[in-house]
Design brief:
The structure holds 2 protein chains of 2 kinds. By secondary structure, chain A is α+β, with helices and mostly antiparallel strands. Chain A has a 6-stranded mixed β-sheet. Chain A has a 5-stranded mixed β-sheet with strand order 4-6-7-9-8. A 5-stranded mixed β-sheet of chain A has the order 18-10-11-20-19. Chain A has 35 helices and 20 strands. Chain A has 6 domains: about 130 residues, Up-down Bundle (Four Helix Bundle (Hemerythrin (Met), subunit A)); about 90 residues; about 110 residues, Four Helix Bundle (Hemerythrin (Met), subunit A); about 160 residues, no CATH class; about 180 residues, Heat Shock Protein 90 (2-Layer Sandwich); about 150 residues, SH3 Domains (SH3 type barrels), CATH 2.30.30. Chain B is α/β, with parallel strands linked by helices. Chain B has a single domain, classed as Rossmann fold (3-Layer(aba) Sandwich), CATH 3.40.50.2300. Chain B has a 5-stranded parallel β-sheet with strand order 2-1-3-4-5, sandwiched between helices. The mean pLDDT of chain B is about 85. The chains are: A alpha+beta, B alpha/beta. At the A-B interface, helix 1, helix 2, helix 5, helix 6 and helix 11 of A face helix 1, strand 2, helix 2, helix 4 and strand 5 of B.
Chain lengths: ~950, ~110
């Protein structure tokens, strides 16, 4: 049986959620065994998994979930307790379910055999619970023959009670007959649609699988294999043969089936004789409601009308099908065909005259007595009413705007003056030179003061043209929007709210799962719009310049009125667009955001297992789980966090007896917390264990030649802790079964830095260790400083910039071929971007350089650029594949004028800085011990 | 064609049931994922049928059905569940449910609507 991909996805998602919840519930339950609601929750989790997997026909999973559900049920009845070894078994069950789920996700089928585990579950539950099982099953069979109730046993169980099986079998037989009958009805069609046949066959397959009759299943699979090779339409003779084969196949089970053979459902006259007039009435209502476009036929068919008709016909057809009015169904099919023809004709330019369609409507009326009356009653006066109310609303709006016009006229004058003032300020600043803040503020101005002034002006203006652009009116004119938009918003939610829509659920848990790639796609599109917006903003700025120029040329305000109108409207719409875009961008970004709890939730189980294994007692204290973070960032953080927490348990927290001797509580604590600061999230991992061992670290570093003993002695603690991030140190110091598997702290840091984060460590011997990780909220949009090198614009992520400054050429000196400069007693390499990225067309300027000071880890360097352009939020676009091999670029972004700026990959640029630092160290060391090149020296 | 309220805490199962109902030409006018929602929606929508799961977070299906029945004697409730506990089935019968079906008995379900 082929598994529907979409359905499998949904299934996996749901089971994943339930497993996750189950695991967390279990961890709490373990410490609070009396908690009934947690127990119930665990029961529900396994119950749901059982149900869904049973439905999908994943029997291993269903059996396992069932066994676990049973166990929880026994605990609920007081027949078992939450304790070892049962808990261990349950956790094994969880792991097994996870394994199966992974297999299903990857391959669509269950691979690993967990029957052994199943048996252990069974065995575990058998002794104390035997009586209860017997009692319940016998009472179920006692009630099943009641009149209206249909009591059915569940089937996918491992438990094999014989009367249960019989019950199941009889249902199966009934169902089988039904399916075969359905198949026989298809025999009336020649040819029959393959999809229908396949549906029936796979239904039979599923049921057979359910009851587990293997040989029948085999035979059925062969059939479905054959059918799948047939064409989309199945000829009558083929179908007849299939039908007979199936009858033969099932004869031993269900006997002769003559009585279920072809029964043509009586068509139309039948329904009139039916006593269920009420049902017919409802059907008629429905048809009348839907047939508006069918009756109201334009002379020439246009596309939108055809689409409308198709929708109506689809709806009527399906309810007619339900009512078994086969004639109506046939008519609808014919109608649909005609419409499809009409549509093709429409596309080819020859729009069809609708008169041939007219008779279809008449035929429908003949078929359904009373339809015309209903139709008239329903669609009589409706249209006029709605038109009336719209024009009324229009009047009200007119009145509202009229009142505000005078006011805004005045404001406009003042504000536009203010706006142009601020432009001048901005321009003036652009020519200023100086440190980072001064120059960057060009960008600030654009986002801040200037923008505000501009917006204010537009806000005042927008009333004028609100009717042409409603969103503008709602957004910008605050007092007005309060009056207009609210009532209409309320109305909208009244009419289109929860009631009609399918999903109604608790506000907290209502979610939709979206493929991350799709969100990224949307974000990309919005990025394009951002570019367009910037272009439009530029245009409207240019228009203002032209306006000022024309005024300066002596043209009068009066003469320029039309131009000014356009200018203002353009500005207004740009600003509106800008606001909506920001909303859109925010909204989509938020879609990528997940609470960090999803990351933190992964660790309690790990801590539990590990501490048990090591004989330690550890409490994991988690806080700040609501902090949201980009999903991609979360994904990147899973492993580094795992490593750090594992270290805490393994090396940080001492054994209980040791802790007690030290006067600490026997249970160690690991704190995991998160908080947001601006565009960054800070994650803190802290333990109250033994802390780092300074001597061991120093010793290791000296023996590896990273430090001299001399240097080590004077090194402050913070610098010593940093050593742990160097390659080879952490792995050498902490070799154990759980940590030290070749992945060291250097890898942790590299991973954190890869996503633009930083990690800091602090430790007090005997008291504990704390890691503070600072990572960006998102990887998709960053704040960047745009710089110019030659004709090329580069973007430098703001997160790595320390400051910007200007230096004179004389300040640059050269050591061993490497340029460097000093500022505030700090010497750092000077890297000319033009020398790294050739082809920028940069002229080696003399005189003054702009320098962007960047930091990566402990290395600092100054990047030499020709000009600083400004600070901007940029949307990162991945580079084309053939470019990703090129080191030095982290991506690209499109600028307002449509040009492309490459985003510098600072870590790779800094490789040069590292090389420099090493060089410097060597030189310094040699100086320190009195060694110079070419000098043989001696050892004291 | 009936107007139906579907109550199940598993969105996966809910979706399957809704698919079946829509295919059968029925109108799913509301969905709920626990008993509280079911009761509130019932009062608001007055559906022809409620298709009710038993095991749910919060108020369970049987209790929800009982309260709905208290509000309206003629409420038609069909249980669809994997639970086959005799006691629960008996409770469902006692409170006047239309049927108690296994979760995949869609054809039987359609025949009742």
């Amino acid at each position: 049986m082929a598994v529907d991909k979409e359905m499998l996805k949904e299934f996996v998602a749901e089971v994943e959620d339930n497993l996750h919840e189950l695991e967390n519930n279990l961890l709490v339950l373990e410490h609070d065994p009396a908690n009934r609601s947690l127990l119930d929750a665990c029961f529900r989790n396994t119950h749901t998994i059982k149900g869904s997997s049973g439905y999908m026909g994943f029997t291993s999973m269903a059996k396992l979930a069932h066994a676990m559900e049973d166990m929880f049920d026994r605990v609920r009845r007081g027949e078992a307790a939450i304790a070892e070894p049962g808990m261990a078994l349950i956790f094994q069950g969880v792991d097994a379910l996870k394994t199966l789920l992974k297999e299903l996700e990857a391959q669509g089928e269950e691979v690993t055999d967990f029957s052994g585990l199943n048996a252990r579950f069974e065995e575990f539950g058998r002794q104390p619970a035997e009586k209860a099982t017997e009692a319940s099953s016998s009472s179920v069979s006692g009630v099943e023959d009641s009149e209206k109730m249909q009591v059915l046993e569940q089937t996918s169980d491992a438990v094999s009670e014989s009367d249960e099986d019989e019950e199941l079998l009889s249902i199966y037989k009934d169902e089988l007959k039904g399916m075969l009958w359905q198949l026989s009805t298809l025999l009336q069609n020649d040819p029959a649609p393959k999809t229908e046949v396949m549906r029936i066959i796979s239904d039979i397959e599923r049921m057979t699988n359910y009851v587990g009759i293997e040989d029948l299943l085999e035979a059925l699979k062969k059939h479905s294999g054959t059918i799948s090779e047939w064409g989309e339409e199945i000829s009558r003779s083929d179908l007849e043969k299939l039908y007979q084969d199936l009858l033969d196949l099932f004869r031993p089970l269900i006997g002769e089936v003559e009585d279920i053979l072809i029964q043509t459902p009586e068509s139309l006259p039948a329904f009139l004789e039916e006593d269920d007039q009420e049902l017919y009435g409802i059907f008629l209502d429905f048809v009348a409601e839907k047939s508006m476009p069918l009756a109201r036929m334009p002379e020439v068919a246009d596309e939108s009308w055809i689409t409308e008709c198709q929708e109506s016909i689809e709806a009527i057809r399906s309810s007619a099908h339900y009512m078994d009015y086969m004639d109506v169904v046939a008519l609808m099919d014919e109608w649909m065909e005609r419409l499809t023809e009409a549509l093709t004709a429409c596309h080819s330019g020859a729009c069809l005259v609708t008169s041939p369609l007219q008779n279809l409507w008449e035929r429908l009326q003949q078929m359904l007595p009373g339809l015309m009356e209903k139709f008239e009653a329903m669609h009589g006066g409706q249209q006029e009413a709605s038109i009336g109310s719209i024009s009324e609303l229009d009047d009200v709006l007119d009145g509202l705007f009229q009142d505000n016009l005078l006011d805004t006229g005045l404001k406009e004058m003042q504000v536009s003056q203010a706006a142009s003032d601020s432009t001048e300020v901005m321009e003036a600043e652009e020519h200023e030179e100086g440190p980072f803040s001064g120059n960057i503020s060009t960008g600030d101005m654009e986002d801040g003061t200037f923008d505000n002034a501009f917006n204010d002006m537009l806000a005042a203006q927008s009333a004028e043209s609100t009717r042409t652009s409603m969103p503008a009116g709602q957004e910008t004119t605050q007092p007005l929007s309060a009056d207009i938009s609210r009532p209409s918003a309320v109305k909208a939610s009244e009419t289109s709210g929860i009631r009609q829509q399918t999903e109604v659920a608790a506000p907290a848990t209502q979610t939709v799962r979206i493929d991350l790639a799709r969100v990224d796609q949307l974000l990309g599109d919005v990025g394009e719009l951002v570019v367009l917006r910037a272009g439009m903003k530029q245009m409207s700025d240019q228009m203002r310049d032209i306006h000022r120029y024309l005024l300066g040329k002596g043209l009068l305000n009066r003469d320029l009125k039309a131009f000014k109108d356009v200018m203002i409207r353009m500005g207004e719409q740009t600003s509106t667009m800008s606001r909506i875009l920001n909303h859109l961008q925010d909204g989509i970004m938020k879609m990528r955001m997940l609470p960090i709890g999803q990351l933190f939730d992964r660790y309690p189980r790990m801590v539990r297992d590990l501490s048990q294994k090591l004989g330690k007692k550890v409490a994991l204290d988690i806080s700040g789980t609501d902090t949201t973070l980009d999903k991609r960032v979360i994904e990147q953080m899973v492993d580094p966090m795992l490593h750090l927490i594992r270290n805490c348990v393994d090396h940080g927290i001492e054994a209980p007896d040791v802790r007690e001797k030290l006067g600490k509580p026997a249970v160690g604590t690991i704190m995991l917390s998160a908080s947001q600061e601006g565009n960054f999230v800070t994650i803190t991992i802290m333990d109250d264990g033994k802390g780092l061992d300074r001597d061991a670290l120093v010793q290791k570093a000296v023996s590896m030649g990273i430090l001299s003993a001399e240097q080590a002695r004077g090194l402050p603690d913070e610098r010593v802790w940093e050593l742990i991030f160097l390659p080879g140190i952490s792995t050498a110091i902490q070799v154990s079964d759980t940590s030290g598997r070749g992945v060291g702290m250097d890898v942790v840091r590299r991973n954190v830095e890869k996503i633009g984060g930083q990690i800091q460590i602090s430790s007090t011997h005997g008291k504990g260790t704390r890691f503070v990780i600072r990572i960006p909220l998102t990887l998709a949009i960053i704040q960047a400083l745009l710089v110019r090198v030659g004709q090329q614009t580069f973007a430098v992520p703001l997160s790595v910039i320390q400051e910007t400054l200007r230096i004179r050429a004389e300040e640059i000196s050269s050591i061993e071929g490497m340029e460097m400069f000093s500022i505030r007693q700090q010497t750092m390499p000077f890297i000319r971007l033009s020398s790294i990225y050739r082809g920028t067309g940069a002229v080696q300027e003399q005189g003054k350089f702009f320098v962007v000071m960047v930091q990566h880890g402990e290395f600092v360097a100054g990047l030499g650029v020709d000009a600083l352009i400004g600070q901007q939020e940029i949307v990162i676009k991945p580079l084309a594949e053939y470019l990703t091999d090129q080191p030095g670029f982290a991506g690209a972004t499109i600028l307002g004028d449509g040009s492309i700026a490459l985003i510098l990959d600072i870590p790779s640029v800094m490789q040069r800085a590292r090389a420099f630092t090493q060089l410097k160290q060597q030189v310094m060391e040699k100086k320190a011990i009195g060694l110079h090149e070419g000098y043989s020296g001696f050892i004291q | 064609m009936s107007r139906i309220l579907v109550v199940d805490d598993s969105s996966f199962m809910r979706k399957r049931i809704v698919e079946v109902l829509l295919k059968g030409g029925h109108d799913v006018i509301g969905q709920a994922e626990n008993g509280e929602q079911a009761i509130a929606l019932y009062a608001e929508l007055l559906p022809d049928f409620v298709i009710m799961d038993v095991t749910m977070k919060g108020l369970d299906g049987v209790e929800a059905a009982r309260r709905i029945k208290k509000q309206r004697q003629d409420a038609k409730i069909i249980f669809m569940s994997l639970v086959s506990d005799a006691e629960i089935v008996e409770q469902a019968r006692a409170l006047g449910a239309v049927a108690f079906l296994r979760k995949d008995e869609y054809d039987r379900l359609l025949s009742l609507l």
